[in-house]
Amino acid sequence: MKKFAKYIYNLITVFVFLIFPINTKASEFTFVDTSKQLYTYDEMVEDIINLAVGHEDRISYESRAVTSQGRNIWLIKFGNLQSENKILITASIHSREYMTSQLVMKMLEEYVLNYDVPNASGTTYRQYFANTCFYILPMINPDGVSISQFGAAGATQELTINWLNGCKAMGYDLTQIKANANGVDLNRNFPIGFGCDKKTASVPGLSNYPGAAPLSEAETQVMAILLNENTFSSAINYHSMGNLIYYGASTNTPDVANRCKNMATIVHAVNKYKMVYCGDAIGSFADYFGAVESAPSITIEIGTANPVPIKQFSNIYNKNINVWPIIANSTL
Description:
Helix 2 (41-52) packs parallel to helix 3 and helix 7 runs parallel beside helix 9 (285-293). The chain has a single domain (2-328), classed as Zn peptidases (Aminopeptidase, 3-Layer(aba) Sandwich). It starts with a helix and ends with a helix. It is 37% helix and 14% strand. The chain is built from 11 helices and 8 strands. It has an 8-stranded mixed beta sheet, with helices on both faces. The radius of gyration is 19 Å and the shape is globular.
């Protein structure tokens, strides 16, 4: 009976959002540039600072760690900053997937700048997010993103620059890097299923090397500490590509597995991306999150190429802008 009631509640929630879409465009201010392909770490930092000015009631930010190349890993809190209902958002754990940072920041801009602007039903973002605080890691892998965008010039340490130049000399395309500046695939660096990916590499490289040990990297340690410090009700991890929603793992408890599928179904009703069950754990953050938090998560894969062409951004944004409000108001 409770499952049926939850299903009906979520169905009504999605229906209301589809009838009264909330992608308002009231604000004349624009910080996040979506006119060009490269959305850089420096641009993101500037956008975070600008969005927070005058909006301290709804957004805050802090650095959680510094990478091997000297860049900060930023955490943004958004919504009801006192709420204990915390939803985690992650983006750009893989270097070449940096449009996910652009997407997250552009959606955040929409929510922050139009916080008190009512939609067609008369409801505001402030009301939609009244009981939720989003914890947002908008660019988990800033070193890798910078390397994907600028090649060896995106690194700051001589040892890393030499390694990248060597990769390039051997014919590797640095735009396709997934790893961090240490050659570790951060989304394979978590304890649950560590080293179990069939594509696992044995040495550092542009992708697939899980690291010498679980949580060996500053970036993944930030994520693990964040889970230890907080209790999250759910998580959305943004990746590219495929226009897919990945959910679940064989290591999930039956309850978490059902909730992951329920979450994926709700989001599918909004963005129409294909749902795909993940299967065996492979050391990903989603695997780790489900085990540590006993809560559901999904991975939203945007676009049809890596890096995602900028011409696809508008369609991706329009399909996903309503996801956060719906998840914040759903029973998972």
